[in-house]
């Protein structure tokens, strides 16, 4: 069963972004990443998310090219790492990413973390890349409300996406509402809580809907209007994670999942970026 993923959201500039994608954080460069991306594209996924830090951009590029899909049917995201931030440094980092990806353009380029004193000049470089047509959309990752307000106070092009850690234990409701008001698309990383899905409510809902706990959580993200990029290197799990467009959670069940929130992070606090 293929994923029904010509399902998209429209970004501020009219670019269509798939609602569901594959994350490749900690997927090994080489066969592991290439096989995961190939499995995702075969299953119908059309969004692949990588980054300079992940050290697997070359594998992502090879798998996209080998898929036989037209380039405009695969949405590729990458990001510069924190030690590559700054205006000139970001432009150079982007070229290095392009050399590894070996693609003509990137669909979405993100500032990976809000490095104090650098993210504004870094974002100016993204605006330049966007204006010359090297990227189709630009945005940020791990930005909180105050980072976004600070950036939007001086930027010429509003961020189109904010990719953040989000899951049932970290629901990010205030940030989600802020981004919705501003027209910034929220995208979730680590949506499956590092596999920590063995929660009584998720097991109950999985039984109720005839789905897996992972599928319940992915569906919850989608119904919130959040793009999500669960990571896996297993073809069967990738296919399974994509089978989420044939059911809908009730409002009550959405609210019950919301109530799991503990403001618990598995990743770093964006207010303390010292890496």
What this model shows, in words?
The protein has 275 residues and is of the alpha/beta class. It has one domain: TIM Barrel (Alpha-Beta Barrel). It has ten helices and ten strands. It has helices at 31-43, 57-66, 87-101, 119-131, 145-152, 173-182, 200-209, 213-223, 235-241, 251-258, and strands spanning 8-10, 16-18, 22-23, 47-49, 75-80, 106-111, 135-141, 161-165, 185-189, 227-228. It has an eight-stranded parallel beta sheet. The protein has a two-stranded antiparallel ribbon with strand order 1-2. Helix 3 links the parallel strand 5 and strand 6. Helix 1 (31-43) packs across helix 2. The longest helix has 15 residues, at 87-101. The protein is globular.
Order of helices and strands: EEEHEHEHEHEHEHEHHEHH
Distance N to C terminus: 42 Å
Give the total of domains: 1
CATH class: Alpha Beta
The CATH topology name reads TIM Barrel
Q: What's the overall geometry?
A: globular
| Average pLDDT number | 96
The second-level CATH architecture is Alpha-Beta Barrel
Lateral strand order in the biggest sheet: 3-4-5-6-7-8-9-10
Structural class: alpha/beta
Beta strand count? 10
Radius of gyration using CA atoms only: 18 Å
Helix percent band: 25-40%
**Low-pLDDT residue spans:** none
What is the beta-strand fraction?
15-25%
Helix count, DSSP H or I runs of 4 or more residues: 10
Query: What is the name of the CATH superfamily?
Result: NADP-dependent oxidoreductase domain
Give a quick account of the main beta sheet: strands, pairing sense, barrel closure: 8 strands, parallel
Protein name: Aldo/keto reductase
Organism: Cohnella zeiphila
Pfam families: Aldo_ket_red
Keywords: NADP, Oxidoreductase
